Amino acid sequence: MSVSSLLRCTIRLERTHVATHLVQQRALSGADAVNALRPFYFAVHPDFFGQYPREREVNENSLKRLNGYLENLQKPGSGSVQPMKLIFYVRDTKDSSDVPPDLLTSGFRSVSFTLHTNDVLSTVMNVLKSCSLPMEHMKGLKASAEASKHSAEAGVPFYRPIKWDKSYYTFTGFRDPEQELQQAKRVEPTLNLWLRNNEPEATKRHSASLPRREELHRLKNELGHKFDLADIRWQRSWGVAHRCCQLQSLSRLSQQNPEALINLQGHTVVFADQSGMNASGHVMLGTMDVHHQWTKLFEQLPSYRSLQQQTEWLKERISLLLGGTQVVHMERLGPVQPIAEHYTTLNTFHKSLLSQRLCLHPRSLQGLTMMLENDRSSPSLHEMGHFIIPTHCDPPKLQAFFQSHAPKARQHTHRRKQLEAEEEAVMKLCLHSLSLRSLSKEPSVSSSQMILCCKRLVEQRSPLMQGLHICVSHFYSLMQDGDLCVPWDWKS
Q1: Tell me, what DSSP letter sits at residue 187?
Q2: Are 469 and 426 in contact (CB under 8 A)?
């Protein structure tokens, strides 16, 4: 189940009141878990963070990981799961009953916690408790879930969700989830109207940010040249001032202890949530870490490089066993995966392939790609053309899947390359036709969506966009440095 599927399921369940007898005489199922987590979803739902792109992105990625954790617990025969650290931005809704949720500004807090529970019920309670959310509706669930283990033969009683009348919320004072969701998804303004209201402020903020932008450009070039870095990137959509501070911190360290940064030569540096090396071999510098922790990471880089070489060897061996299919890892399609976790995944999958030799021609699947996922139970084909394969997969079934889906995978791959080429061309056209300073998109915006958006922008040719930094997203937002986010399906 994808994040969008999880959220759709949540929206359907938002109409149901979570009573204390939510689960009786049966264990907590996946649907029950979603229902029990209702207060949590309303506190972290990305739809409520439209004006805060960074927090929205963090919550989307954390929801993906939480969903995978819960799915893993529900798999038949699943044993212990690996601990998982999650970060959420939680809306403060306790004292804001009279304020529409879409009007709340900066009313959220950052919460970090680690999941290490081995059952769904304990995980749900851990999430609610960690976020300091109401748990009254969970009373009695633990006893009911434990009792269900001894009464499975008695059968499962018929369960019907309750849809409460509007008068219930008026009488009790509880907030109507259906009404709250409608307020969050209010009607958006037209693009021209929104630009007229925000273009002057965007221009003002951009002018104010010019000294910081120049400093950012200088620091990036200086550090990249001094230590022969392949690139410097950022995991999040941080503002220019925030990025400058991160580069200044790295620059100070290079002046105080230049020997420490020698091991960085040739690497791509990514300022991220946590320090380490990711599956792509990029060096991640945790923005909350101090110089001592960065220095310790630099000292460990030779060991990380050795581990990266072993992962590349495993990819080559897997490709030989799977007819030339290449194992890839796309950071933009999911949360950051550490190199050690990536190696473990590859090693486990490689051993499973060696247990039963496959009868695939060495080049029968040449040009195709695949991703490995620990939280998946069955293989699938992504619309972008790559296979998504579970780490624990039966080799004969995997061979049959590859052979039956290879033609469609090649079609999808060919289509993806066509869309990417068209996207690149139409973005250049849009950039020059509208005289934009820059044009980018969020990773969640597909190529087809970007193409449609750019074509419509060129057709409309709004003079208000001249000289602006535009990022195509799923919502409107004016960033602190004057950049403008516009939804790809903006209304004319």
Answers
A1: P
A2: no
CB 70 within 8 A of CB 30: yes
Nearest 5°: the CA angle 316, 317, 320 is 90
Q: Is the pLDDT of residue 157 over 80?
A: no
- Give dist(CA 335, CA 58) in Å, integer: 9
Residue the block writes with tokens 């004969």 = 396
260: pLDDT confidence band, cut at 50, 70 and 90?
Answer: confident
Task: List the beta bridge partners of residue 111.
Answer: 88
Q: Tell me, what's the pLDDT at 144?
A: 54
- Please give the model's pTM, rounded to 2 decimal places: 0.64
Q: Which tokens sit at 93?
A: 């809704």
Helix locations, 322-385, DSSP H: 339-355
Q: Which two tokens stand for residue 116?
A: 């290490």
DSSP state of 331: G
- The backbone region for 465, taken as left when phi is positive above 0, alpha when psi lies in -120 to 50, beta otherwise, is alpha
35-49, 97-111, 265-279: segment of lowest average pLDDT: 97-111
Report how far residue 270's alpha carbon sits from residue 233's, in angstroms, rounded to the nearest whole number.
5
